[in-house]
Structures are given as C-alpha cells and as structure tokens.
Amino acid sequence: MTTPILQVRDLRVSYGGVAAVKGVDLSVAAAERVCVIGANGAGKSSLLRALVGLEPLAGGSVIWRGERIDHLPAFERARRGISLVPEGRGVFPRLTVQENIRIGGHARRGRSMAADIERVYSLMPRLAERRLQLAGTLSGGEQQMLAIGRAMIGAPDLLLLDEPSMGLAPMMVQTIFEVIAGIASAGVTILLVEQNARLALRSTTRAWVLDGGRVMLAGSSAELADDPRVRTAYLGD
Ligand SMILES: Nc1ncnc2c1ncn2[C@@H]1O[C@H](COP(=O)(O)OP(=O)(O)OP(=O)(O)O)[C@@H](O)[C@H]1O
Ligand SMILES: [Mg+2]
C-alpha cells in the first residue's frame, strides 16, 4: 500500500466506562475502497462516529494526511475533507431536499455552494427532480441519496458510509451502490460499514471484520469473501 491517507491506531470508544471499540488499527490509502463488516453491536458505528469527532476517543489516535486530528472538533475534521453518511440517514423530514443538502455545505471554506449543489444533483438526478419536496416524503432510497448528497456537498476526500443499504429493496440498494461507485471513481476514498457483508466485500478491495469491538480478521475483500470463518458467520453459507 502507498502512504496511507488515514491511519487509525489502537482506537477505543467507551460509553460510561463500557468499552464498545477496544483498540482498532486500520489504514486506508488515497482513493481506496475499504469496508468494515460485523454483526449488530460490533462497534462499527462507534468507530465511524469517533473518526469524524462525534464520539470522544477513550484511547488511540486518528491520523489524517500525516496530521493527528483526534483532538479536533467535528467541523474541523469536515473542513479537512472527512464526511460521514450516518446510520439511519438523519435527514430533516420537514426541510426540503435542497435545504437538507445546504445544511452539509458549511464544511469547507472557499467553495461555491451553488456549484457544489449542482455537482450533487448531477451525481443523483433524482434529487434534482425532487429539490423542493420535503425530505420526509421521500422513499427510503431517496432519503439515502439525500444523506449521501448532504455528505458530498463539501467535496470530501474521504466518505464514511454507515449501513447505506439498510432497509432498502434490492433494486434501490443497487442504485445506491452505483452512486457510491461513481463517487469512488472520481477519486474519493471510501470507508464503508455494512452488516450486508456480501455486498460490502463485493464493492471494496480490502476489509476488516469487527467483532465485539476488536478486529478479528483483515485482508483483501476477495480473500475474506472466501474465508470459511467469514462465510459461516457473515455470509450465511
Ligand atoms: N450512545 C450509546 N450509549 C451507550 N452504549 C452505546 C451507545 N452507542 C452504542 N453503544 C453500545 O456500543 C456497542 C457498539 O455499538 P455500535 O452502534 O457501534 O455497533 P454497530 O456495529 O454499529 O451495530 P449495528 O450493526 O447494530 O449498527 C453496543 O454494545 C452498543 O450497545
Ligand atoms: Mg451501527
């Protein structure tokens, strides 16, 4: 691997003294597509939230482009080009599509909001057609697109996605993953978290298996998809 753009060392997250992430190491190269898979409660969301500054670290470090960022507030990390599409989408139902997208737009200085919004619409034309519709009236898949659009507004270099396939029909899952592939092919680094291990391993080149807050296995996504332990525990084979 070339010099990593993101390095996570011995990362720990605790809730009221109860450890949820127990010392995770991972590194990601620029423009790479990687995933973290794991069952309910494995610590996947806690890991992503800690990376963007929404949970405090109980230990360890996060290094972004050679700089430690784990002491920085969330907006400073966003400004440096790290963006999260949260689990459950988190759209504001009573705001329009366009208003929801604009909310993501304060992250990076010196960018044109109008141009960034148009870029999001060209990525997901369905959002453009619905720009004045209230977000609460969108389908689940459209809300997922909106959550991605809001995260893309500041033109991030690293996009973290927390369970983008959750609750969506297979056709819509495919559409969402085509959008993610389009973002990746434009050079954005992708760190995907999924319970849908089959899908996640198919759409990435490297993967980590998280279990009980610890990395149990790591390797190329193709190797892990063939690993008997992964097949039994996560692929239902
Ligand atoms: N705000 C919180 N307060 C207390 N405990 C929490 C909190 N958030 C998560 N936890 C606990 O931390 C552990 C890891 O949770 P986390 O949400 O990170 O897992 P996950 O892998 O994302 O699970 P899922 O696949 O269900 O989304 C779980 O035991 C969970 O109950
Ligand atoms: Mg989660």
Characterization of this structure:
- There is one protein chain.
- The protein is an alpha/beta fold.
- The chain has a single domain (4-234), classed as Rossmann fold.
- It is 36% helix and 27% strand.
- The protein is built from ten helices and ten strands.
- It has helices spanning 44-52, 74-79, 97-103, 113-123, 125-129, 140-152, 170-185, 197-202, 221-226, 228-234, and strands at residues 4-15, 18-29, 33-37, 59-64, 67-68, 82-85, 158-162, 189-194, 206-211, 214-220.
- A six-stranded mixed beta sheet has the order 6-7-8-3-9-10, sandwiched between helices. A four-stranded antiparallel beta sheet has the order 2-1-4-5, with helices on one face.
- A hairpin with a 2-residue loop joins β9 and β10 (214-220).
- α3 runs parallel beside α6 (140-152).
- The chain starts with a strand and ends with a helix.
- Magnesium ion binds at residues 44-45, 87, 162.
Q: What is the H-and-E element order?
A: EEEHEEHEHHHHEHEHEEHH
How many discrete domains?
A: 1
Radius of gyration: 17 Å
Report the biggest beta sheet as strand number plus sense, adding barrel if it closes.
6 strands, mixed
CATH homology superfamily: P-loop containing nucleotide triphosphate hydrolases
Percentage of residues in helical conformation: 25-40%
What overall form do the CA principal axes indicate? globular
CATH architectural group: 3-Layer(aba) Sandwich
Unreliable stretches covering 5 or more consecutive residues: none
Could you tell me the CATH topology label: Rossmann fold
Which percent band covers the strand fraction? 25-35%
Mean pLDDT: 94
How far is it from the N-terminal to the C-terminal residue, by CA? 31 Å
Structural class call reads alpha/beta
What ligands can be seen in this structure?
Answer: adenosine-5'-triphosphate, magnesium ion
